[in-house]
Amino acid sequence: MTARKHSALPKAQVLIEALPWLTAHNGRTVVIKFGGNAMVDDALKAAFAQDVVFLRQAGLKPVVVHGGGPQISAQLDRHGLVSEFKAGLRVTTPEAMDVVRMVLAGQVQRELVGLLNQHGPLAVGLTGEDAHTITAVKHLPTIDGESVDIGRVGEITAIDTGAIDALLADGRIPVVSSIARASDDGHIYNVNADTAAAALAAALGAETLMVLTDVEGLYEDWPHSDDVISRLTASELEKLLPELASGMVPKMQGCLHAVRGGVRTARVIDGRVPHSILLEIFTDEGIGTMVVPDDPPAPAAATTEHVPQQAAAEGGVR
Q: pLDDT at position 144, please?
């Protein structure tokens, strides 16, 4: 009996360590951008679904936003359509947009909703088209000083959170595909999922934005060092943006937009690590890179005495 008690103690310690963060985040909205290797590895997909359901059962309100780059590229290949990128964005012809819409809403979203609903009648899928959730205009990136037409790629102009608010109030987990309706020309637009997640997080007044990616976080001096910056302010991030690799730019721009829009913290975390979401939110160390506003917001009302208030609000001592 004594041996069994002792072997269970580490499990109890893990639960106790999570208690301050459970208290601090209870009832708050967390927007999670699902992407990277976590989208294509079956074990990581299952772990992601478990994490999201855990958040919901622990009293948080998770909202999942996803893209589907690898799946879209594979489907375009099957249709004999070329995948072309300019300014880091997929050139999206009308034919390609049909494939994007089919893959995001009909394949990636359905699989993710199915994984979440293995744990109960929780997840509901929608796209930015539904209930005017995401509205966009045509995006014309500048390359070498000139505006370039890259097709049905949208720049977000408005967010309507009504449908998501209703689902959250009903205890559901919204799963949102990064497709937008046009505000002016009747088209449907492909929008960057990192950007969509950040815009939704700000509009929902979320506690936290979490962006899953395929690196450990934002590196301090890549490629000369693999040390990860664990915490930085919005102004510090803004200064770093011009130096970042192109793949990290939309993720970090999204984090910057979120915290400047009222989100308490934004985090880039390694989606290759199983249960990285739980490790980031519910442990003292946390993982990845956390972005905070320049002027820290007032501490969350529900904190515990033995944890610094700002740390409790941020969900991990850094």
A: 83
